[in-house]
Design brief:
globular, about 350 residues, eight-stranded antiparallel sheet
């Protein structure tokens, strides 16, 4: 256990490997879809889904590799996705429809210093999503209780993270630890990425005040008239690189410009199409083709959660077929705690087209 934690946490210090992006979409009938990518280019992790029943007891990992931190019992059952171990839920939704997810936040966040005397209330940052989903049904409940725990790094020098929390009614907040203190930001734009802090990302949107949906109007320039080569030139100048600020800009504009769908079920495919624009092609975040491993994508999986209907959808870098976990089919009172790989087989589903051959 301790060796795994050390290797995993050392890896998250490498900023080029980290590039997660999230969006929130609203349907006309009030439905809400919380969606995001999970980008991890250091290694091909064993990605899993976890089903947690009511009454499941969790205990937080500590920097010494033991599980002697805060003990918490699930008031609510939930389903989540994450890497390697069921304790590390990166994004999930509980049976009340509350969604929570973590996003790496290197160089800008700071947790309280780990204090051995306070280990009974210490929670590893990679387990905060599980703590939220186990205990709460609203954002305000999280805010009221966050100071009752101490969020810590499992390994002291690893990157910090920040969190997005979404209610089924559409309220979204971003929680960041600044100078050891939890800070909550109302996310009215429905976008999140990594560093810098959320306030800075919102302010940076002002640099793109010229962008708009549609096609730019012709412009008379001296004796000639400039015209668009194609549709969509209203977004000419939107940043296309994979830095966190640029991904935040794309997420904010695409998420707010897309055609609003009638319900959350029809919004799910739209969410995946938007996030296709935020997939990180593998190798682009490394110099001179020096990526440490060879994978199909730097974006290992993408999830879109229908919070009203409590259905999770995902696809992976190995298989773009969208799969779903319908929480309505789960009895969280009786279902056993379980976890399983996101991909049964790491291979793309390719279906041959049946061609009718003319008879002679």
């Amino acid at each position: 256990m301790k060796k795994f934690i050390y290797i995993f946490c050392i890896s998250v210090m490498s900023t080029p490997a980290i590039a997660c992006t999230g969006i929130t979409l609203h349907a006309r009938d009030g439905g809400v879809v919380s969606a995001r990518t999970i980008d991890w280019a250091e290694s091909d992790t064993n990605n899993i889904y976890t089903i947690v029943p009511r009454g499941h007891v969790s205990r937080s990992l500590l920097p010494d590799g033991t599980q002697n931190g805060l003990t918490f019992t699930a008031k609510y059952g939930f389903v989540g996705l994450g890497p390697e171990r069921p304790e590390f839920v990166v994004d999930g939704t509980n049976e009340t429809g509350l969604n929570a997810g973590l996003f790496y936040f290197p160089d800008y966040g700071e947790y309280p210093k780990y204090d051995e005397a306070m280990r009974d209330i210490s929670v590893a940052d990679l387990q905060v999503v599980s703590w939220i989903l186990s205990n709460f049904s609203t954002i305000d409940q999280v805010k009221e209780n966050i100071n009752n725990i101490r969020v810590i790094n499992i390994y002291p020098n690893s990157s910090t993270v920040h969190w997005r929390i979404t209610e089924p009614g559409g309220r979204v907040v971003v929680m960041e630890f600044i100078n050891g203190t939890p800070t909550f930001h109302e996310d009215e734009i429905g976008a999140i990425a990594n560093s810098p802090n959320f306030d800075w990302q919102n302010t940076n949107l002002n640099n793109y005040v010229n962008l708009h949906a549609g096609t730019a109007e012709p412009l008379k320039l001296g004796a000639i008239t400039l015209k668009s080569f194609s549709g969509g030139t209203g977004l000419l100048g939107i940043p296309g690189d994979f830095s966190s600020p640029s991904r935040f800009v794309r997420a904010a504009f695409f998420g707010n410009m897309v055609n609003q769908q009638q319900n959350s079920e029809s919004t799910i495919p739209v969410a995946f199409h938007i996030l296709n624009n935020l997939d990180v092609p593998f190798g682009t975040t490394y110099n001179n083709n020096r990526a440490p491993t060879n994978m199909p994508s730097g974006t290992q999986w993408t999830i879109a959660s229908d919070l009203a209907n409590k259905v999770l959808y995902y696809h992976t870098m190995y298989n773009r077929t969208i799969r779903k976990i319908d929480m309505n089919e789960i009895n969280f009172e009786t279902v056993p705690f379980q976890f399983a790989p996101l991909d049964d087989v790491k291979r793309e589903t390719i279906i041959p087209v049946q061609i009718q051959i003319a008879q002679e």
